[in-house]
Amino acid sequence: MRKLVLTLAALTMALPAAAQERRTKIGIGIAIVPIETGNFANRTIELYLPIQIAPQLRLEPSLGIATSSGPDGGTDTRDLTLGVGLFFVQSVATPVDLYVGGRLKLNFARVEQGAPGARVSNSGADVALAGALGGEYYLVPKFSIGLEGQLGFYSNSSASGDNSGVFTTGLAFLRLYFM
């Protein structure tokens, strides 16, 4: 029993030391494998900016842009997605971090339909709020691959279908840290 207590005490002392060996504080990332859920969160390809604001706290703003143009008289869409995530990050091994937190995303959607000269446009703002759980594996100190699962709520404007509901999704990330 005494060996177990000493082992646990040693692990407890090692966790703050591991936290001091934090990886770089700023990077850029991209979600490489969005899994389709039917909500706006996966219509755009987003760039993420992970910022380690404290030893175990990460702020991750994101920006996504998507456009599509149909043939003459078809439907044209434009989406601008702004998001932010806030995560508690814990290193569980030298090359592995786990994180838990949430994401808030706003999507500004615009849809235009009809023949030239008689186009009808509709625009609106969509919202998504999701809890997220993920992990990343550092292949080298400044480059990681990761997976994230989300459970959330979305509310779409009339430009995106005028609906709301609950969603689950998964993302695979590539992140490159440079500072």
Question: What tags apply to this protein structure?
Answer:
single chain; 179 residues; mainly beta; Porin; eight-stranded antiparallel beta barrel; 1 helix; 9 strands
Task: Report on this structure.
The protein is mostly beta strands. The chain has one helix at 2-20, and strands at 27-31, 45-48, 51-54, 57-69, 73-93, 96-114, 120-140, 143-155, 164-177. The chain has one domain (23-177): Porin. Strand 4 (57-69) and strand 5 (73-93) form a beta hairpin. The longest helix has 19 residues, at 2-20. Mean pLDDT is 81; it is low at 14-21 and 37-42.
Question: Major sheet: size, sense and barrel closure?
Answer: 8 strands, antiparallel, barrel
Distance between the termini: 44 Å
Order of helices and strands: HEEEEEEEEE
- Under the CATH scheme, which class? Mainly Beta
Net shape: elongated
Tally of separate domains? 1
- Unreliable segments (pLDDT under 50, ≥5 consecutive)? 14-21, 37-42
Helix and strand content put the structural class at mainly beta
Indicate the mean pLDDT.
81
- The share of residues in extended strands comes to over 45%
State the helical fraction: 10-25%
Write a concise synopsis of the structure shown.
The chain has 179 residues and is mostly beta strands. Helices cover 11% and strands 64% of the residues.
Produce the secondary structure layout.
Elements: H1 2-20, E1 27-31, E2 45-48, E3 51-54, E4 57-69, E5 73-93, E6 96-114, E7 120-140, E8 143-155, E9 164-177
Antiparallel strand pairs: 1-2, 1-9, 2-4, 3-4, 4-5, 5-6, 6-7, 7-8, 8-9
